[in-house]
Amino acid sequence: MAENETLECITEHERILQEIESTDTACVGPTLRSIYDDQPNAHKRFMEKLDARIRNHDREIEKMCNFHHQGFVDAITELLKVRADAEKLMGQVTDTNRRLQEAGREVTAQTEEVIRCRIQQRNMATTVEKLQLCIPVLEMYSKLKEQLESKRYYAALKTMEQLEKVYIPRVSQYRFCQIMAENLPRLREEIKEISMSDLKDFLESIRKHSDKVGETAMRQAQQHRTFNSAVAKQASMGHYTKPVYSLNGRTHTHTPNGLLMDDDTGDEEEADEEVLTAQDLVDFSPVYRCLHIYTVLGDRETFENYYRKQRKKQARLVLQPQANMHETVEGYRKYFNQIVGFFVVEDHILHATRGLVTRAFTDELWNMALSKIIAVLRTHSSYCDDPDLVLELKNLIVIFADTLQGYGFPVNRLFDLLFEVRDQYNETLLKKWALVFREIFELDNYSPIPVDTEEEYKLVVSRFPFHDAEIEKQDFPKKLPMSQSVPQIYTQVKEFIYASLKFSESLHRSSTEIDDMLRKSTNLLLTRTLSSCLQNLIKKPHIGLTELVQIIINTTHLEQACRYLEEFITNITNVSPETVHTTRLYGLSTFKDARHAAEGEIYTKLNQKIDEFIQLADYEWGMAESDGRASGYLMDLINFLRSTFQVFTHLPNNNNDHASMSGKVAQTACMSACKHLSTSLMQMLLDTELKQISMGAIQQFNLDVIQCELFASSEPVPGFQGDTLQLAFIDLRQLLDLFMVWDWSTYLADYGQPTSKYLRVNPATALALLEKVYRGMKDTSKKNNIFSQFRKNDRDKQKLIETVVKQLRSLVNGMSS
């Protein structure tokens, strides 16, 4: 057992020793530690083993040294022998070196001279080489200075770019190149400032030249429209040729520089004409140059933003009108020229540059401008009271719209605005024709037109569509039923239609729409302007009854002429009146209304005149007996009515229609006058301020009413049947008969019966008058101091009056309940 453990221990110590011999010294620690971690006293045995190994190695070293010692001794002996030979060789080398140095001293000097020359030659070559590199830089810089002096800024920028990228990097180590490189940014900024200054001058220039550019463009647009009209006529005749003229020298083909040029250059006549374009009137080189410069400098966006901002500001200035623009057509023309010029320039810039302005930008500018233009035109056109100026404004708007439409701008809103301007134009026309109608009415003598010869008759008929077989058969001289104002009014209505038609030209509207416009404007003239003038004429105080009757006749003829106005409009527009949507003229109602107003004015004036006579009445309501004759005021009134109705009957009655019309008016006026006279006399009796009436006053009043009845029965106006006119006084007659006959028993007994003798006497009226008569009786008795005698003699009459009063009051109360 002990032997086994000893054998294992020896084997382990052998392994450890081999590991120590074969392992790096840094890793010996763990191996040695394992010795101490083993059995007790193992390290001692290991140390013994280690000492034995050391002694073994020492013996091997000693054996090896003994083996090689003789060789070492022999090598040392050989080395000592070589030492002498080496010293001898050293001496020989030193001598040879000395002699070589003496022999090569002159060669060395010459070699150094050659080296110095070679260095100089090399330096010269290097200098020449460097100068050859620097000379192009200096030449380019000199070229840059010349370009700057000659204001060739775009070329100068290209030169600077070459200097920076090609030439200066080759010689960047030299100071003058560094100075050049430092100057280049400053020169760029100077070029930017100079080009921006040129751009500002350009913007100022186009602002000043916009008027001329716009004037040229609008003139060419007008020529283009005239040319198209001629082409359309040729096409309608079957001789159509391709148009060779284009708006502002442009067609729909874009040239490389963005301008629209004329397609057909083969026409010699057109070739002879010089067509000016925006490029001919404005030098665009500053903006091109500035655009290129900023593009090269990599700052194009800044330039674009600045240009657009400035153009927006200029657009706002251009769109600002002068305060007195509406006073003359030149004000409008200048305003339109500036706007057209502005957008022609923008259109050219749009097509001549790539992205400086975009279609979206120009559309935005145009929409802003269009809104402003429409607002300005609405405001200023409303101040225009001259139809000629409004018409010229319309023509300018049409040319303005056509011009910009040729450049691709939408102008539909402008043509919509023209409808508003058309309304304004019609308003100014209506105001102008209102003055014309008033002047015609003021100068008219309101008497039939006398014609002494055939020429005079034809002249009147040529101006007014009058046809009457009976009058044509009469010998000269003769009279036409209407007054001088009728053909004048008819002629002026036609002139108004012509004037209204002028506005409809060039509006790109169909014949039906134009026809509708003409009819509507003519209706306004008839129903508003002419009607108002007629109404005002009828109301004028100096227009008498004769003039009113003539006005009625005139309106009848004008009413009959309306169908000729319809035909006149139809001939102008070539639109059949049977068209479904054709507007009809409303002249019939206008003249009917005027005629009715004149008739009403006749009745009113008659009644006013009757009232004036009635105010002259001076009855002595307390008279004991009547004068035995009618009152003077009433006889004057009746004589006035007779003479007035005599004038009515002497009106021209050549035409049955006129005769029937004047007769009808006279009958109505006569009946109205009699009714008004009857009513006025009744009101005079029943006046509340009149407290008492004597029977003598009743008798005098009865005499006046008799005269009225005699006048009514004398047939002052022919055509009344039977006693129709006398019925106007029936209320007065029955009332007065009741008091004159004192037939109260019959009145009360027959009251309410259809066959009553006093059917037209109202109980309230009879009661009011009876109370006045009763108070008059009592007042008369007191004055005569015979009231007691009256009571004795007329007691029965007094009781009768009181009884009648009570019964009348009961009737009145019964009617009110």
TrEMBL record:
Keywords: Exocytosis, Transport
Superkingdom of origin: Eukaryota
BP term (GO), one: intracellular protein transport
Exocyst complex component EXOC6/Sec15 N-terminal domain ranges (all copies): 49-218
GO cellular component: exocyst; plasma membrane
InterPro entries cross-referenced by the UniProt entry: EXOC6/Sec15, EXOC6/Sec15_C, EXOC6/Sec15_C_dom1, EXOC6_Sec15_N, EXOC6PINT-1/Sec15/Tip20_C_dom2
Stretches assigned to the Exocyst complex subunit EXOC6/Sec15 C-terminal domain: 414-772
Pfam families named in the record: EXOC6_Sec15_N, Sec15_C
Function as written in the Swiss-Prot or TrEMBL entry: Component of the exocyst complex involved in the docking of exocytic vesicles with fusion sites on the plasma membrane.
PANTHER family attached to this UniProt entry: EXOCYST COMPLEX COMPONENT 6, SEC15
Entry's family note: Belongs to the SEC15 family.
Protein name: Exocyst complex component
